[in-house]
Design a protein that fits this description.
It contains twelve helices and twelve strands. The chain is α/β, with parallel strands linked by helices. It has three domains: about 60 residues, 434 Repressor (Amino-terminal Domain) (Orthogonal Bundle), CATH 1.10.260; about 140 residues, 3-Layer(aba) Sandwich (Rossmann fold), CATH 3.40.50; about 130 residues, Rossmann fold.
Amino acid sequence: MYSSTRTITIKDIAAEVGVSKSAVSLALNNKPGISDGLRQKIFETAALLGYQQPDVRLVQKIETPKSITAVFQYGSSSAADDYSALHSMSVEWLKGMRIFLQEKKSNFTFFEGYGEISYLGQQILNDKNHPLDGLILMGPGVHRHSKLVQRALQQQIPISVVCRSWPDIPINTVGQSYREQAALALDYLINLGHRRIAFAARTHDQGYEWFEERLDEFKTMISTQLGVNPEPFIFVDEEEAQLVKQIAAVSPSITAVFALHDSLAFRLLDSFEAHGFRVPDDFSIVGQDDTVSNDDRRLGLTTIGNDHFQVGYQAAEILFKQIKSKEIVCSKITLRSYLIERDSCRPL
């Protein structure tokens, strides 16, 4: 043991714990770079030895709660019918965010609206009395070149974006792989024996990145797995009734439909039945994202889903880690997707 009259130094603490002096210095000055467990051990050892250097506190600082804002941006008002389908998914995203941020005792605010939401920049990004520590963006209206994204980047506010893949810009992204989802759906239909599979989307869907990625995977799977030219089986129209007519007119007969998202899949299902076709007897239909409740439906939709709660939780967690450590530039997280088999598909 050390004498009570001797001045205890960082070197003494380092020797007692068995670490470097720099590790002790990081711990005592509340700097990042060491684990929480080691930091606590150093604190306890320093206190036991009687380390009394006046300009160092042997307790963790009481931190000001972090202020996080989440924004759901809708796209064009012409696509408003599709947004109700996002409700169940976005509710789970927000639930995951709130749970994590409550654990961290952070302040959490949520906004939603169409377009650029210009008031957000005026009221939050420039609020010097209540500075924003981090921003979470989600929804079909979120674009990498939006004013909101660019202003937040200029102000060096950490950002997490839900369900996007932007590998070339310093923004956290959390979500699914659209290509993986499309591959899972098509592989399922092919294994059921379907050889003539249609790709269906609405015109306004073409503005979203998931359209291109799912369409590219469709083309790849149809050409490589079935040896078929996919172009005659791609249908894009604003009206689902027109999509149904076009799909039904193709010969040889199409037996299955890959819908770009669940909202369209359900409308196609209704339109097929309105035109005298039966699902899945005449046409099998598979959707994407697991965004529409099947509780009040006579026929459940087979779709591809992922853990929406975990998407929101991870978006908040990686944002919080970036806020806490200046060493983290950004993180890119892709969660696994999985088949949800219900009643809208049948084997041939």
